[in-house]
Every structure is written in structure tokens, then in C-alpha cells.
């Protein structure tokens, strides 16, 4: 049986997630509360980022110690309201949490439910957003079995999702799902897309949905993309009123590829307005913060 829990303090939330390494988190309702006194929430479009962080490593070049200052600079310059991350390991997520500063919090768990494994952590600006409910499920035939992998993926894969309240918009709610599809098995990717579509169909249909992730296939060139759009989602890159230059979102620390494949996407339900979409090429003296470029979308929820 899934374990139900309620947590009320920001630090308590993190502590609960760090400690929860032996049992799955259920679909968990969180208590409503307002932004801290004296903190004025940001206004305007909801700024969403999807970012494969590249897991922390001591191997050079591009160790986490080298990349972290660049990551810090990028995230502080952009200050997204919500960041769907992939590949982050626990110590790395703590570093990012510290670097983002006191106005951010995060939710996530390791894909094997251990603190050392990769996570689909979601960071959010507490001045703008408040979680109302969250859950994790695994991309398999047994989605609530921790670490389950039944479709031949190279690794266990999962989704973390949160139902957020937008504190600047009268408490308007929306869902954000964050995932990382398998890099080897096309079958696993197709089944993963179908499961996510099924789960979205079970949400409150009156609320907007945003999906962030590294899907490991190119937009417009794979049935995985077609399945997700066929389920009613739209690609904010395509629907955006304004776009940055296009680059392949995976670069592997090699020269950037103009007009390359987008394997990292921000998808949404059709009622969401994408005012701008961007692929962020920030680096510092040639050092990138990750082997992926972050993808950004500036959204209106309706």
C-alpha cells in the first residue's frame, strides 16, 4: 500500500524526501498556504525550464565541481519559476538548491528510491508557486513499484509530478510532469508516452498541464513525439509566438549544432499560451553547465 504523508514546512518537505528511501510516495495532498510575509511574488508569464543536468561526476573534464559555478550563474540569471530537471543526484540537487537561494524549494526522489540515484526533481520559486499535491510513478507495467522496469529500458525510468497553485494568479492551479525517457529502447519510450497520456487523462481535466523532459528522440521525427501530441498535448516550441535560435539540445560538450534535433521539450495542454520559447546556450569561457542545453518556455496558463 502507498504511504500517505502531509508536510507543512519547507525544510520538513526536504527532510521527508531525503529520508523516504524505503517506500513510494503516494499521490499526496499538501496544505494550502500563502507566500511568506514581506515577499512579493514575481508577476507576468510563468517561466518554465526543462534541464538535463548531467549527473554529478568527479571525472574531468566537465566534472560537477567545474560545472557547478556555471550552472549557478545560468540559473540565477534566468530565475525560472519552475525547473523540471533530469539526472540530478541527491548531493547535486542540494548544491543547486543552495545556489538558487532561500526562495526556492524542490520535490523529487531517486528512481530506485535511494538518495544516490538519479532523480526527476522539480525546483520551484516559492514566491510564485505552492505545491498542492505531488506524486511519482515509474514507467513500467507496475508504475507504483519502486524502480520497476518491465519494458526493456536500459535503466528504470520515472515521472515526478506536482499540482501547483500560482500565488500571483488567484491560486490558479496547473499540473507539471517531469520525466526522462530511456535512451536505448524505442519500445520503452513508446510505452512511456502511452502511460503518461493515460495518467494525464486521469487528472482534473479543467486544469492546464505542462510536461517537461528529456525524451531522447527528436521532435517531429519519432512516433513517441506523435503519441504525446496525439494525446492532446502541444509543443510549446511550435506554438510560441516568439522563438530563440534553434540548436540541438544535446551537445555532449562539443560545438553546438544549429538547427539540430530537439530531444528536450516543454509540452502543454492546448489552452496554455506560449509567449516565447528558447534554447539557452549560456556558457562561461567555453564551459557549459551540462551536456544538454536547457529549454525554456514563457507561458500564460489561460
Automatic annotation (TrEMBL):
Pfam families: Exo_endo_phos (PF03372)
Domain Endonuclease/exonuclease/phosphatase: start-end pairs: 49-292
InterPro entries given in the database record: CCR4/nocturin_mRNA_transcr, Endo/exonu/phosph_ase_sf, Endo/exonuclease/phosphatase, TAT_signal
Residues of the signal peptide: 1-29
One example GO MF annotation: endonuclease activity
The entry's keywords: Endonuclease, Hydrolase, Nuclease, Signal
Top-rank taxon, per record: Bacteria
Keyword Hydrolase: yes
Gene3D superfamilies, alphabetized: Endonuclease/exonuclease/phosphatase
PANTHER family the record matches: CARBON CATABOLITE REPRESSOR PROTEIN 4 (PTHR12121), ENDONUCLEASE_EXONUCLEASE_PHOSPHATASE DOMAIN-CONTAINING PROTEIN (PTHR12121:SF36)
Official protein name in the record: Endonuclease
Species name: Streptomyces viridochromogenes
Amino acid at each position: 500500500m502507498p504511504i500517505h504523508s502531509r508536510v507543512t514546512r519547507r525544510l520538513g518537505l526536504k527532510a521527508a524526501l531525503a529520508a523516504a528511501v524505503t517506500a513510494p510516495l503516494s499521490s499526496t495532498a499538501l496544505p494550502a498556504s500563502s507566500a511568506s510575509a514581506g515577499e512579493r511574488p514575481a508577476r507576468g508569464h510563468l517561466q518554465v525550464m526543462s534541464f538535463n543536468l548531467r549527473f554529478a561526476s568527479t571525472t574531468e573534464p566537465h566534472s560537477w565541481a567545474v560545472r557547478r559555478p556555471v550552472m549557478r550563474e545560468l540559473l540565477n540569471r534566468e530565475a525560472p519559476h519552475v525547473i523540471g530537471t533530469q539526472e540530478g543526484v541527491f548531493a547535486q540537487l542540494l548544491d543547486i538548491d543552495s545556489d538558487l537561494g532561500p526562495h526556492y524549494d524542490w520535490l523529487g526522489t531517486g528512481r530506485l528510491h535511494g538518495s544516490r540515484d538519479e532523480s526527476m526533481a522539480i525546483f520551484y520559486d516559492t514566491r510564485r508557486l505552492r505545491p498542492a499535491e505531488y506524486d511519482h510513478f515509474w514507467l513500467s507495467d507496475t508504475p507504483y513499484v519502486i524502480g520497476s522496469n518491465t519494458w526493456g529500458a536500459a535503466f528504470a525510468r520515472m515521472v515526478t509530478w506536482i499540482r501547483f497553485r500560482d500565488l500571483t494568479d488567484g491560486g490558479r492551479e496547473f499540473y507539471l510532469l517531469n520525466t526522462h525517457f530511456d535512451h536505448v529502447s524505442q519500445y520503452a519510450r513508446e510505452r512511456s508516452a502511452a502511460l503518461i497520456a493515460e495518467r494525464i487523462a486521469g487528472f482534473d481535466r479543467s486544469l492546464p498541464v505542462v510536461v517537461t523532459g528529456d525524451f531522447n528522440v527528436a521532435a517531429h521525427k519519432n512516433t513517441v513525439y506523435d503519441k504525446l501530441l496525439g494525446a492532446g498535448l502541444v509543443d510549446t516550441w511550435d506554438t510560441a509566438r516568439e522563438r530563440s535560435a534553434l540548436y540541438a539540445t544535446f551537445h555532449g560538450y562539443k560545438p553546438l549544432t544549429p538547427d539540430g534535433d530537439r530531444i528536450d521539450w516543454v509540452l502543454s495542454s492546448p489552452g496554455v499560451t506560449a509567449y516565447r520559447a528558447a534554447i539557452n546556450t549560456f556558457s562561461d569561457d567555453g564551459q557549459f553547465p551540462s551536456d544538454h542545453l536547457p529549454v525554456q518556455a514563457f507561458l500564460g496558463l489561460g
